[in-house]
Amino acid sequence: MDPVARVAGRAIPFGAKNVDTDIIIPAKWLKTISREGLGEGAFETIRAQEGNVFDDPAYAGAPILIAGDNFGCGSSREHAAWAILDLGIRAVIAPSYSDIFSGNAVKNGILPIVLPQEAIDRLMEVAQQGEQIDVDLETQSVTTPFQDRFTFDIDPFRKHCLLNGLDEVALTLARQTEIQAYESQRAKTRGWLTPKTGNITETHA
């Protein structure tokens, strides 16, 4: 996945509370195993409403989403993170998230930022004015052109993964040397556990 160090641009002033994963991506879109194209179905029921922020040209391509409390609650579908990422969103700012959504977001290169409601309210105002919001993961801060500065906490391991673009596959491959050493040692001491190759006999009808 692509690293996340700084996300800057306009933010979508959504702000709704208790938005579950079925709202983020309805169940009918879950038939695919691809991460691409899900942005089309993201927030479908909300986008069906006239004047919704997701289809407002003023926020087209915005890389930041400002949401309300308990964002991503409901079922554990990873498609919710895929859909948000497919919209071009790399950071979400909310007072709280469901644990599963927060984990899925990080594993897919989305930075979930937790800030108090007062900070959310202020960022909503800035976003509605069309001003840029700047997220810096290295300094763990969110700033605006009006000298607002909000700091946030993040688990050090999650921060490391996002800054370096490490998903679960990349984390495993980073230990390839240790894995190969283990498998080599296991082959010597427990050879019966090592699959045999080159002994397949081809037969024909």
Q: Give me the side-by-side strand order of the main sheet.
A: 1-6-7-8
Strand segment count: 8
Largest sheet: 4 strands, antiparallel
Total count of helical runs of at least 4 residues: 8
Q: Report low-confidence residues grouped into runs of 5 or more.
A: 199-205
Average pLDDT level: 90
Output the structural class.
alpha/beta
Which outline best applies?
globular
| Terminal CA distance | 47 Å
Q: How much beta, percentage-wise? A: 5-15%
Secondary-structure element order, N to C: EEHHEHEHEHEEEHHH
Rounded to an integer, what's the Rg over CA atoms?
21 Å
Helix content: 25-40%
Describe the structure.
With 205 residues, the chain is of the alpha/beta class. The chain is 32% helix and 14% strand. It is built from 8 helices and 8 strands; from the N terminus they run E-E-H-H-E-H-E-H-E-H-E-E-E-H-H-H. The strands form 2 sheets. A 4-stranded antiparallel beta sheet has the order 1-6-7-8. A hairpin with a 4-residue loop joins strand 6 and strand 7.
